[in-house]
Amino acid sequence: MSTSRTTDVVASDRNQGKNQLRVGRLVKAHGLKGALKLELYTDNPERRFVPGAEFTLQVPEASPWHGKSIAVREYRVMNGNSVVFFDGVDDREGAEGLVRAILWIDQDADEPEDNAWYDHQLVGLDVVRDDTVIGKVVRVDHLPAQDLLIVKANDDEIMVPFVEAIVPAVDVAAGRVIVTPPPGLFEEVPEAAEGADTDDADAAE
Prior knowledge:
Distance between the termini: 39 Å
Structural class: mainly beta
Mean pLDDT: 78
Order of helices and strands: EEEHEEEHEEHEEEEEEH
Strand content: 35-45%
Largest sheet: 6 strands, antiparallel, barrel
Number of strands: 14
């Protein structure tokens, strides 16, 4: 399976049960005319951010945008950065009110996004490190900065950032995700997974 991907997760419990895909996050206001820099969670921004495309906003409940949607006026790439303009957002102050908002779009059943997975496809998968099963995905948490796989390892729940550097491969058909975590992320895994390195170190001494 190709590992060149964005780690998008499709949520099926948003917007009255419709499947929705997280496609971007508004990072910061850009200029004085309402533009916002966009962090992309999609491999097809030119298709997703066409004029008139409408997105559901994920914002804090205190935000005046809570529960609302927003439509694209224009999408550009400026100095290597994705920049988007929205209808009704005409100045920097308006743009500032949307910073950190996450954009979700209804997903057509016959037009799946590349390299995206539904929550229910990920939950229950074995988590494998160095060919050893070290836990199981019990849920997916959607945070503004990134998604987290919550992995049950022994009696602990470990938060694993769902990024390619740490989760290089997802194989739904095989029922597993491959992880290459940094040292210390899975300290309470079974001794069989941790013991090999310890034994080698002892032997070297």
